[in-house]
Specification:
Ferritin, Ferritin_DPS_dom, DNA starvation/stationary phase protection protein, DPS_DNA-bd, 6 helices, 69% helix, mainly alpha, 0% strand, DPS_DNA-bd_CS, 179 residues, globular
């Protein structure tokens, strides 16, 4: 690690750099999967999906920079080559690799966004427990943005018919809201 006047302990910085590089691999992988969707989408919703996927790429580019630059701020090195990403990414392989129609790309992008959002939320907790609020905040921003994009992509999968969950499906949040 590089020396820095950052007041986080070296052990916390080292753990956060490792976390950041793990999520950097996911962010770069997400970005490339989104570009594959953008390039290859076909069908009646082509223009809407083509533009949507490219807008998500723009935000994914910002996530990549936020994560990489935070690793460097903490005295680390950002590991973001194609080989490093291929080795470290936890995202599943893009599911619509054979071209695919709009719906296949919507499903594949939704899956990737869901996985990426889950790993961002896990990173929030890890960084917060290490008392690195700045890194936690970065992942909170990424999680919030990813959830927004997931909502917009999933709207292309939904039929518009909403079904009220049964009382057994509500979980704690549903019980808390009901009381």
């Amino acid at each position: 690690m590089y020396e820095t006047l950052n007041d986080l302990s070296p052990s916390i910085r080292e753990r956060m750099i490792e976390l950041l590089n793990a999520r950097l691999a996911d962010a770069i992988d997400l970005r490339t999967q989104l570009k594959v969707a953008h390039w290859n989408v076909k069908g009646p919703q082509f223009i809407a999906l083509h533009k949507l996927f490219d807008e998500i790429v723009d935000d994914a580019d910002e996530y990549v920079d936020l994560v990489a630059e935070r690793a460097v701020q903490l005295g680390g090195v950002a590991d973001g080559t194609a080989r490093q990403v291929a080795e470290r990414s936890t995202l599943d392989e893009y599911a619509a690799t054979g071209g695919g129609n709009g719906q296949e790309h919507v499903d594949a992008v939704a899956d990737a966004l869901g996985q990426f959002g889950r790993s961002a939320r896990q990173a929030i907790e890890i960084a917060a427990s290490a008392k690195d609020q700045d890194t936690s905040d970065i992942f909170t921003e990424i999680s919030r943005g990813t959830d927004k994009w997931l909502w917009m992509v999933e709207a292309h999968r939904q039929t518009g018919e909403w079904v009220r969950p049964s009382s057994g499906d509500r979980g704690e949040a549903g019980r808390d809201a009901a009381h």
